Amino acid sequence: MVTEARTVWTRMLGAGCKPDVVAFSSMINGLCNAGLVDEALKLYNEMLFKEPYSQPDVVTYNILFNALCKQSSISRAVDLLNNMLDRGCDPDLVTCNIFLKTLGEKLDPPQDGREFLDELVIRLFKQQRVSAAYKIAEIMMQKFLPPKPSTWERFVQELCQPKKIQEAIDRCWNNLCC
């Protein structure tokens, strides 16, 4: 019912309604499901110039990643992932699953995705997004795709900073005392 959705969307905008991230993502999802990925990407680009409450979130990006990867537009999906990271939006389990499935099914020869996720972890570390890097590494471990030794070294360096060690000790003492 894309035609009807477009009509409602146009009326909504004409009435002065400002769509939020959920409205944008819903419309983008409908367009992608109808095979109108380029139109969905145009709507995503419009979204970037709206108010903060309508900025794309990880759900929006995952909808677009899924659509692009289904079309075997892997390089476009990676470009969009780079844009997502540059905008400060962190990937999640769904993001990882989309790319892992695509790398395993659409590339010749297939890849397990370890290298891809490892590079993602390193990039997140470089951007000082340690929590997001930990989450991706955790996903890697759950999928039996352990990070490279050099990536483990980054984790150890991050975890073994004196301030972080003291915080961990303080938390342990607080848990014992309470």
TrEMBL record:
PPR repeats: 20-50, 57-91
Repeat as UniProt keyword: yes
Single annotated GO MF: mRNA binding
Record's keyword terms, sorted: Repeat
The keyword Lipid biosynthesis is assigned to this record: no
A Pfam entry, by short name: PPR_1
Family annotation (InterPro entries): PPR_rpt, TPR-like_helical_dom_sf
Protein family (similarity comment): Belongs to the PPR family. P subfamily.
UniProt-listed NCBIfam families: PPR
Name assigned to this protein: Pentacotripeptide-repeat region of PRORP domain-containing protein
The organism of origin for this protein: Turnera subulata
